[in-house]
Amino acid sequence: MNAFAQPVILENEWVRLEPLAHSHTDDLREATADGALHELWFTAIPDAQGMAAEIKRRLDLQASGRMNPFAVMSKQPGPLLGKAVGMTTYMNIDDGNRRVEIGSTWYRRAVQRSALNTACKRLLLAHAFEQLECIAVEFRTHAFNQRSRQAIERLGAKLDGILRNHQITPHPLAPNTLRDTYVYSIISSEWPTVKAHLNDKLGRSQPTQRMVPPAC
User: Fold this and answer.
1) Cα four-point dihedral sign 84, 90, 91, 95
2) Dihedral sign, Cα of residue 165, residue 168, residue 171, residue 177
3) How many CB atoms lie within 10 A of CB 74?
4) How sure is the predictor about 107, in pLDDT bands with cuts at 50, 70 and 90?
5) Which CATH number fits domain 3-203: 3.30.450.20, 3.30.420.40, 3.40.630.30, 3.40.50.1820?
6) Kindly report the CA angle at 119 between 116 and 120, in degrees rounded to 5?
7) Pairing between strand 84-94 and 67-74?
8) Per-residue burial over 136-165, b = 16 or more CB atoms within 10 Å of its CB, e = otherwise
C-alpha cells in the first residue's frame, strides 16, 4: 500500500478524522438520514440501506491503493460528540506524481454550515502538503453543486477548468444526465498562504459556532 493510502488519524479541537471502518456503519446510517442527503441528485451519497456497501467499496479501494477513507468524528459538545457525522477521503491517488484529490465528502445536516468543514480541510491539506509532500491537491464537484463550489473557493482553491460531459449521472432522480465537473486545486507554493487563511478562519470560530457550508 502506498503512503497516500496508509491509515492515519488526524485531529484538532473541532474534529477527529479516523480510518473508516465497518464499526462506523450505524452512526453513518443515522447521519445520512439527517437531511435525506441521498436525495440530492447531483451527489453520490449513500442512503442508510446502502451504507455498509459504500463503506466496503471505499475500503476495497483503499486496499488497492486508490483511496484513503476517513470517518468524520464530531468533537462538538452535545449529542453528536464522539459520533461519526460524515465521510471524507483522499482519492484518485497519484503517488508517483505526488497528487491527490480530497473528495467524496459529506456531512449530516446538523453539522453543516459549521466550522467543521474548514477544520477537516485544514487537517487533510496539512497532511497532504507537509507529510505526503504533495505538489498539488485537487477538488472536484458537479457543476450544479453550487454550495460545494462556493465552499471549495472559500478554502482558497483555484479553478483549473471544467470537464464538460465528464460523467454519466447514475442517480435515479436524474438518470443518464451528463455531469460537467468543476476541477479546482491548491498547489504546494500556495499552501503557506492557504494555511494562514484557514488558521485565521478557525481562529475566529469556536467549535460550537456555525460558520461555513459543507464541501464537495
Assistant:
1) negative
2) positive
3) 26
4) very high
5) 3.40.630.30
6) 85
7) antiparallel
8) bbbbbbbbbbeebbebbebbbbeeeeeeee
Q: How far is 116 from 175, CA to CA, in rounded Å?
A: 32
| Residues in contact with 213: Cβ distance below 8 Å, sequence separation at least 6, in sequence order | 112, 113, 117, 147, 150, 151, 154
Summarize the confidence of residues 92-118 as an average pLDDT: 94
pLDDT band at 215 (very low <50, low <70, confident <90, very high): very low
User: Rounded to an integer, what distance in angstroms lies between the CA atom of residue 85 and that of residue 37?
Assistant: 12
CA angle 203, 205, 210 (to 5 degrees): 155
Q: Where are the domains of the chain?
A: 3-203
The pLDDT tens digits of the residues spanning 159-207 come to 999 999 998 988 888 888 999 999 999 999 999 999 999 999 999 886 5
113 pLDDT above the threshold of 90: no
The pTM is what?
0.91
In the numeric block, the cell 446510517 is attached to 29
27-61 pLDDT tens trace: 999 999 998 888 887 788 999 999 999 999 999 99
